[in-house]
Structures are given as structure tokens and as C-alpha cells.
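Issue 218. Parser rejects a valid record. Input:
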Amino acid sequence: MEYERVLSRYGYADLRIERSSGSYVQITNDEVRHASGTSEGMGVRVLENGSWGFASSNRGEPLGSLLERARKLALLGRGGIRLALPKCVRKRVRQRPADTDIGAQVKALLEAGRGMKAKGVAARTLSCSDSCSVQEFYNSEGAEIVQETGYTYLSCTCTARSGELIQRGSTRSWSRKGFGKIDLSVAGGAKDKALRLLRAAPAPKGRFTVVFDPEMTGVFSHEAVGHACEADAVLDRESILAGKIGKRIGNALVGIADDPTADDFGRYAYDDEGVQARRTVLVEGGVLKGFINSMETAKALGLQPNGHARAQGYDSVPIVRMGNTYFRKGDASLDDVFDVKEGIYLRGMRGGSVDTFSGGFMFKAEEAYLIRGGEKKGLLRDAAISGNILKTLHDVESVGRDFGGSPGMCGKNGQSVPVSDGGPHIRVGNVAIG
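Output the parser choked on:
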């Protein structure tokens, strides 16, 4: 076809065309804000002289002109970039959600927001994003991939106040099938969580045996391990896991994988380099097994490309990203996981930070509970944990056979993409709280 003929004039070149539509509804207390729109554009990359050149346009610029702009930018550099090119495919993937009736959506969200009202509640916010896009990919090797995708993402936040004490509860719901599949009952969960935390005692400080709920397990897997397993960070020597493939980084209970093919919020069939997404084992039995990569980073590390180069849109360059990151289920019952004489149970995630170079991390749980004699006792607030990735992976004591996950939008280098993470309840010893 015409695209293929034009792209084939270059050593390597690819083209992404995107047509998207979306809407955003935010309800703060009972005030409604709504925005919607469409966009269309294309982005091209050219590899010349061992360097990338990138150009994009939403003004209908001719493909040849766009490619020449990218080529000139590539020629300004002198690099050593090479690519691990996969087998070219011609494929169409349809995962398009049902259309959303904005009027009905606003009405339903207002009703859910009213269900968040209660004595002590100071503010209520519901934010709902709908996105639908058709993405085309072509390259000079002959690939031709068309993907129709979309999602709905709902975030609910409730702020409660008692005197000077302010606490917040947050919940989320998502669907790849349209707003009609969103669970609006999560709005009430945000209210209940915020009000519970007003009655909670401050978390104690010190070192404790802790139990992570599935959300905390998933976020730890994503933030502390997944980002450290991104091949660009490894090549830039910004990851504590650089040079550790085949080496033990945790005990035998630890297994973590990233699987963009799983039916979850971070799902996709082909990445933004036209590489088929596949499940990639990162850690198995405590041994580091692999990294997620792009064609460029795969070649540099001597690996096979595994479909983890993603871009926020046509006007962004693909970079190494996660999809759905999971901690593998174990064999323990919940009673076994909670078999702790004295410890702390951490539920949900309220932000944190990770330094993938040193391995240091800090996470704040949404809520926590004392554990005494294997039973959850008093509710705690403001519980934050800190530590080192490798030490924590060695201190895992028990892994449950249950499983739970949570959706989110992951940011990196100014780009945001849908992801999900999850896992079972796990018990970890000697964790710093404070």
C-alpha cells in the first residue's frame, strides 16, 4: 500500500495514525463540569545514522514531508542504536467499548455523588474519563496493524473532617466495555473509608511484621519491581537490578510478571512499535528472569522484544512501559498469612516514591489495622512504610492464594498510560513503619 511504499525509502521508519474521541465528567459536590472532543494526527520515527528522529502533526501534513523532518533530526545525531525487529504482521484488533450517553452518565454520577453525603463529609469528587481510539501502525518492514481500543475510568474521592483532623478516602472502577459496566457503588466506599479514618488512631512507629492487602502488593510489584525492570532504566544504569538477570533478588516465595494480554485495565494486543504484547516473567522463585523492553533496548541487552513500548498518543515517542503487573499467587490461606503475634495490616495505597537506582522506597497506605494473635484489632491512619526493594523481597514470609487487582494511570517522562497491578495478601517481616 501507499504508506508501505513511502516508508520503505528509509533504513527503518514507522508511522502511527490515531483518531480518538473522549469525554471527561467531574462532579465536585453537586457542581458538574464536562468536556469532550476528538483528535486526529500522526507521528513518525526514522532511524538514520544510529539515531532516532521523531515528528508529529495534527494538521494533515503529507507523510513524505513529516518523514523528512524526522530524518533531518536523526541526522543531527550520531548514535549506535540498533533494533531487534520482530516478524511483521498484518492484523486488526477490535476492543471498542459501547458508546456513552453523556446525559445518562451525568445523571448516574450525580446520584452516586449524593450517596457520598454524610455528617462529617466536607467534600466529594467523582471524575469519570471515557476514551475511544483507532490506532494504525505501519513500518518500513511491511507491518500493518489496526487496533480499536477504549476504556472508562472512574475515580471517587471523599474528604471528611472532624475538628482539625482531615482524612480522605478514594476508590476506583474501570471498564473496557463502556460506562454501563462501571461499578458506581464504589462511591459509597470512598465515603465509608474517609469516615472510618476519622476514628482511627495514629499508626505506631518502629519495625513490624506487616501484611499487604492485594492492592498494596500490586502497587509494590509495579512501583518497586516493575519500574526497576524497565530495560531503559537498566541500560541507563538507573536500576538496582542492572546486571542481575539469573541472580537471586528475593526468596523463593517471590514471583512477579507483567502481562499486557490479561483482561485488565492495562490490556493491549500490540505495542506502539507493532510488537505483539506477551507475558513477561520478571521474577520467579526469587530469581530475576527478565526485563520489559522495546526493540531498541531488547537489541542492546541481547533479548527478544516483548511488546512493552507504549506511547500516550501519536504525538509522543514510544518508551518502555508496563501493562498489567502481578505478584504471583501462593499456597497460604488468609489465616496462615495473618498468623502474626503482633503486626500491622496495610490496605490500599495513597502514594509514595521509589528510587530504582538505590532501591529505596516509601509508600503510604490508605488505612491500616493492628494485628494481634492473628486477628485484626484497632484501625490505624497515616501508616507509611519504607525500606529497600531487595531486602523486602528477601523478607517475604507468606504468600496467599487469593488475588485482587486495581487500575491506575502510570506516568513516566511526561506520558500517562492505563495500567493495572495486583496480587494476593502477602506477609513481610521487619518492615519500617513511620
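Fixed in the parser; the record now loads. The domain at 2-199 is CATH 3.30.2290.10 (PmbA/TldD fold).
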